[in-house]
Amino acid sequence: MRILHTSDWHLGQYFLGHSRQAEHQKLIAWLVEQTRLHAVDSVLIVGDIFDTGAPPSYARELYYTLILALRDAGVGLTLLAGNHDSVAVLEKSRNLLTALNTVVIPSVQDDPNEQVRVLTTCDGKPGAIICAIPFIRPRDVLQSIAGQSARDKQESLQDAIHAHYQALFALAEQKRVELGTHLPIIATGHLTTVGASVSESVREIYVGALEAFPTSAFPAADYIALGHIHRPQKVGGLDHIRYSGSPIPLSFDEARQQKEMLLVDVSTNGLERVTVLDVPCFQPLLSMKGSLKELEAAVLAACVPGR
């Protein structure tokens, strides 16, 4: 089975007052074409689908355009909420979207079985089991205890997130036994891990609670697809734990990054390979410094076609 791992689309972002709508339209068209070229079975978007909890109408239109385009291409889609996403917004059309081959996980679910899903190949065969874990808010997994220190709260949250991962992984292993096939297990996460390299546009999400989740606390999944960090990277140098990064630059310090999506091939033997898919630059970002005269010359030079 071939899975395309991406995250942090931030539909609806305004960058210094400029809409990214045209870039996202081009990105959607490019992504759909890549699913055809590379025979992708399923797409994972691991959090921060929208830039804000109240996305503008055109951002919601882009969201549904992506869903319909992938449905028409015969590609499955799993959408996981990030810290920028509104649970209510993603919950609103969730049940309807299941008819369009799209699974939306807006928050930690009361029934953990809702988060353990079988991903199917384009021909409808079981290809992998996913532990679909969105951004975890402390209230989703913890009860407040009076008198806890900041360190106690941090440790309690880390333990609770670890327990959530382990519980879903155990359900996935059970489902694998029930299916009678040694399907690979994919886990997701929208969080900061120990050692991850961040950029200016990444918002800290566990202020005063959990700063970073240790890689050793993840379950023994065949592949762990992460979101929240916008710079694509392996975690701890491990091939099977990766941030795909954002598909377009979301701040000037990301302007020179080669943006990526990841093609993840899995089989009953586990993880076969991860292939980097370079995302083209749909709108260059330039940062310039100097006197007014120097800036005038630099802007004119930047506007020359082909540069």
What distinguishing features does this structure have?
six-stranded mixed beta sheet; Purple Acid Phosphatase, chain A, domain 2; 307 residues; 14 strands; 7 helices; alpha/beta; single chain
Care to give the gist of this entry?
This protein is an alpha/beta fold and 307 residues long. It is built from 7 helices and 14 strands.
What does this entry look like structurally?
This protein has 307 residues and is of the alpha/beta class. The chain has a single domain (2-302), classed as Purple Acid Phosphatase, chain A, domain 2. It has seven helices and 14 strands. It has helices at residues 21-37, 57-72, 87-92, 94-97, 138-141, 150-179, 292-302; strands at residues 2-6, 14-15, 18-19, 42-46, 76-80, 102-105, 116-120, 126-131, 185-190, 223-227, 233-235, 238-243, 260-267, 270-278. Helix 1 (21-37) runs parallel beside helix 2.
Low-confidence stretches: 204-209
Structural class category: alpha/beta
**Average residue pLDDT:** 88
Helix content: 25-40%
Distance between the termini: 40 Å
Count of individual beta strands:
14
Radius of gyration: 20 Å
Order of helices and strands: EEEHEHEHHEEEHHEEEEEEH
**DSSP summary: helix tally:** 7
Tell me the number of structural domains. Answer: 1
**Second-tier CATH architecture:** 4-Layer Sandwich
Sheet with the most strands? 6 strands, mixed
Shape: globular
